[in-house]
Specification:
Elements lengths: L2 H25 L5 H26 L6 H24 L5 H8 L2 H11 L9 H15 L9 H27 L2 H23 L4 H6 L1 H22 L5 H8 L2 H12 L6 H30 L1
Helix pairs in contact: 1-10, 1-11, 1-12, 2-8, 2-10, 3-7, 3-8, 4-7, 5-7, 5-11, 6-11, 6-13, 7-11, 8-10
Length: 296
């Protein structure tokens, strides 16, 4: 798979997650954040396990304890990120939540440099900040005063940055993307389920009312989109992946406008353009650089 194809998979994942914002918002009227996460990730795990077993039969080697350790780290990072986001979004504005979640675009290359000692292509830095600015404009160009919910969203961005950074490492070490997806979903379902049983009430009526949103979040936002992320990140860098995945905010705004009749401010269209420009730059500039070096 080429890098362009991989980045297109990540763009598709972001589009699915954009629709997930609508499902996530609607489901909170019926069930708590931990139950929502537990049910969606349990459903995703059930959907992926058959494919993971098929992958296992074709694998050249068995998974090691080290492989499973990487898988659990990825799952734990996603669980903590999703939990912080679900809880935090209840006590902050949608504008703040969308913008602050998008901070992982900047955090991923920082982690690459500080922790992994890897220098991303120079274009990553300006496009990362361009993306963050685009997300800010997409949400009207201003933020409300920071609250406790905002702090949780910032913590969410940190954990999502870790998940995006560690995912390609785990896949390259094991060669088993679907096994990673299954274990990741199991960790998320189990952790969220324990928290839900301890902290949140639940009823069959509530689950039935939120079932369409749970099905979308479980089968598409989790089952399909996270698998696309894992596969796509095998063939691109974590900082590039963060740029493409951040378009989730753009798609979320578009789906919100179409499905929930939410209005996009005029300045938001400028933000859309900046995010799209960042994706083009992060794809085109490295390719032009390689061609220039090859012909030199």
């Amino acid at each position: 798979m080429s890098r362009i194809q991989a980045n297109l998979l990540l763009l598709l994942a972001a589009a699915i997650w954009g629709g997930g914002f609508v499902a996530q918002s609607e489901a909170m009227e019926w069930i708590g954040p931990n139950w929502f996460n537990a049910l969606r990730f349990a459903l995703a795990m059930v959907a992926v396990v058959p494919f993971a077993l098929r992958e296992s039969r074709k694998a050249a080697r068995a998974l090691t304890i080290r492989d499973y350790a990487w898988f659990v780290l990825v799952g734990a990072s996603l669980l903590l990120g999703q939990t912080m986001q679900q809880i935090g979004i209840q006590s902050t504005t949608v504008t703040n939540a969308s913008f602050l979640t998008g901070l992982y675009v900047v955090l991923v290359p920082v982690i690459a440099v500080v922790v992994l000692r890897r220098r991303p292509h120079w274009i990553i830095w300006p496009t990362a900040f361009l993306t963050v600015f685009g997300i800010l404009l997409l949400n009207g160009g201003s933020l409300s005063a920071l609250s406790k919910g905002d702090v949780l969203i910032i913590v969410c961005a940190v954990f999502l940055a870790v998940q995006i950074t560690v995912t390609p490492i785990a896949v390259r070490a094991s060669g088993r993307p679907l096994a990673l997806a299954a274990v990741q979903f199991a960790v998320c379902a189990g952790g969220a389920g324990l928290a839900a049983v301890a902290l949140e009430p639940i009823s069959a009526t509530a689950v039935s009312a939120a079932l369409p949103e749970i099905l979308y979040a479980g089968l598409f936002s989790s089952g399909v989109a996270f698998v696309l992320q894992i596969i796509g990140q095998r063939y691109t860098t974590a900082p590039q992946a963060a740029i493409f995945l951040s378009s989730e905010a753009l798609f979320g705004a578009l789906f919100g406008a179409v499905l929930l009749a939410e209005t996009l401010p005029a300045i938001g269209y400028v933000g859309c353009g900046l995010i799209f420009s960042a994706m083009l730059l992060v794809e085109v500039v490295p390719e032009l650089t390689r061609r220039r070096v090859a012909t030199a």
